[in-house]
Design a protein that fits this description.
By secondary structure, the protein is an all-alpha fold. The protein has a domain of 114 residues: Alpha/alpha barrel (Mitochondrial carrier fold). The protein is built from 13 helices and no strands. It catalyses: ADP(out) + CoA(in) = ADP(in) + CoA(out); dADP(in) + ADP(out) = dADP(out) + ADP(in); AMP(in) + ADP(out) = AMP(out) + ADP(in); adenosine 3',5'-bisphosphate(in) + ADP(out) = adenosine 3',5'-bisphosphate(out) + ADP(in). It is a multi-pass membrane protein.
Length: 324
């Protein structure tokens, strides 16, 4: 032909090209694996950044829950600072990271998967869940993460309330607790933890997802800005932690009973003793005011970090696929 373009052979068929094209496209299974991996990585980073930011406040809160008054807890923190230096305020943070990184990774990843499962079940594929499934997805995500990482939370609590000389590292905590108190001790306080996680994680994820949906409906923007995400996350943390706080106090008391000179055999008996000795508000809500500072900051950072990491990873993968 005059223009130099050769006609295709008569037996050439369009479907002959399809296998070549499809070979360069990621399969559905590969995409799902990448999605899960992205969620795990984003969740791990979100938990690490958030917990490191509030580590000194977290340690103060745990100490305060085991003390009789604010003044006593602050004196202990101040003495720790004077005797062991500024970085001692982050003591136990390595144990926190060992627990928080897998916990946050599992929780955020599980939340994404539960949202997808519930969306398919209720017929909301690709759309925001309605309020009840939204709450259930958060509760299931928190419960899944708590069940798989609880012993690490126990170790973290012990390291935060004991002198530096008592436990040298995380492994030492496991060994001493196992030898001196039995393996069951690693799951002491597990029941109040699960009972507390259900409203905490449920309300936190529910509030955050709801505020994002309301923002999209009223602003016309598909995504909130980072400061708006921080604000939504702060609201989520405030509501979630306020609802579950009494069970958090009970959990800490049961976890640290072996080194604080107490014996708690059940949730109800622990609550009764706390109320009898310290009162309802001053006992079961001890340290809540600090949680109103620490909690919103931590949850806001956590949710924002997760969302921004997800967006970044998706953009990187998209640009990689385009270049190919």
């Amino acid at each position: 032909m005059g223009n130099g373009v050769r006609a295709a052979p008569a037996d050439f068929k369009q479907q002959d090209v399809e296998p070549v094209i499809s070979a360069h496209l990621p399969s559905e299974g590969t995409q799902e694996k990448k999605k899960v991996l992205n969620s795990l990585m984003s969740g791990a980073l979100a938990g690490a950044v958030a917990k490191t930011a509030v580590a000194p406040l977290d340690r103060t809160k745990i100490m305060f829950q085991g003390k009789s008054c604010w003044l006593e807890a602050y004196r202990l923190i101040y003495r720790t600072y004077l005797n062991e230096g500024f970085w001692s305020l982050w003591r136990g943070n390595s144990a926190t990271m060992v627990r928080v990184i897998p916990y946050a990774a599992i929780q955020f990843c599980a939340h994404e998967e539960y949202k997808q499962l519930l969306g398919s079940y209720y017929g909301f594929q690709g759309k925001a869940l309605t309020p009840f499934p939204r709450f259930i997805a958060g509760s299931l995500a928190g419960t899944t993460a708590a069940m798989l990482t609880y012993p690490l939370d126990m170790v973290r609590a012990r390291m935060a309330v004991t002198p530096k000389e008592m436990y040298s590292n995380i492994v030492h905590v496991f060994i001493r607790i196992s030898r001196e108190e039995g393996l069951k001790t690693l799951y002491r306080g597990f029941t109040p933890t699960i009972l507390g996680v259900i409203p905490y994680a449920g309300l936190s994820f529910f509030t955050y997802e709801t505020l994002k949906k309301l923002h999209a409906d009223h602003s016309g923007k598909s995504q909130p800005s980072p400061p708006e995400r921080l604000l939504f996350g702060a609201c989520a943390g405030l509501i979630g932690q306020s609802a579950s706080y009494p069970l958090d106090v009970v959990r800490r008391r049961m976890q640290t009973a072996g080194v604080m000179g107490h014996t708690y055999s059940s949730i109800l008996l622990t609550m009764q003793e706390i109320i009898r000795e310290e009162g309802l508000i001053r006992g079961l809500y001890k340290g809540l005011s600090m949680n109103w500072v620490k909690g919103p900051i931590a949850v806001g950072i956590s949710f924002t970090t997760f969302d921004l990491m997800q967006i970044l990873l998706r953009k990187l993968q998209h640009s990689t696929n385009v270049q190919r």
